Amino acid sequence: MTIAAAAPVMLCAWLPTAPGAATATAALAGVAALALALWQMLRRLGVPDPDRAAALILLLPSVALNGVIGAHDTLWAAILLLALVAALDRRHDAMLGWAGLAIGLNPQAGLTAPLFVALLINRRVPLLRWPIAPLAAAAALLGTGSVGWTIGLRPLLHEAITGHLLAIDAPNIWTIVQTLPLGYPLLGLAIAIAIGTIATVIAHFAARPIGDHDMIAAALLCTMLAAGLLPLMHERAFFLADILSLALALVRRDRAHWRIALLVQAGSTLALLGHASGIDALTILGGGMTIAATALLAGPLLRPAANDNPVIARSA
């Protein structure tokens, strides 16, 4: 089922259709691949009735809006889920290959990279195997470039070079900070905070084993922290967090994780609406919600003592 889940993503990239038809085909193929990849993950984690649970992906506002605005986030997100499934199965070559492929399609997939780095360190995966990810990313860049896709590095680099704000309609802390009359540039400080936090999270997860059910929580936290602290993030920066928060709620099936999922969905949707309408207040409100969700998730996951942490200690 791994290849079946990724097949719509691969096929739509080389489909010789007209631009409008290609966009619609890619959107439909991306949603199908995303649902299949989520189904495989939920089935692997023993979620009851994974077919019905995976179908909930169709109800997420960010997934519906992604197709409307012509974005292709569902494509790389589906492949990233396959990387997480491979990580659950300890198939590290496949994990690196899928992760690299996703990053090559869109560098936003790299928001989850801290978890994969931590797993490579914790599981003592030989360094000779690490280059699989960059090689897969390079292959994806060459493949998408050959057919004229623009979902690789170019859009993000353009935003980073031309943008003068800390955040580009992203529902994170920098959207809030940049509204304050501080009067001096904070880009360097934002980068330093993000790098320091990400390095700390890598060290934390690299120092202890992560149970199967906890893998999704750790992936979500890495994604939330990276999207929440890196500068120059855009309004779709929390798309992967939308998917992972739903998956985590379906796995844990408790009120606390459904609350986190609702906060993430609301924050991400408000940012999309704020970007479309030009109402900054919506994006700022969305930023408050994603910050709250990150705090609720980080509390149990980042406790100093692993033996006292039921989230880390439990394995599937």
TrEMBL record:
Keyword Cell wall biogenesis/degradation (UniProt): no
Lineage of producing organism: Bacteria, Pseudomonadati, Pseudomonadota, Alphaproteobacteria, Sphingomonadales
Protein name (database record): DUF2029 domain-containing protein
Organism encoding this protein: Sphingomonas hylomeconis
Chain ranges passing through the membrane: 53-86, 98-121, 127-149, 183-207, 214-230, 282-302
Keywords (A to Z) from UniProt: Membrane, Transmembrane, Transmembrane helix
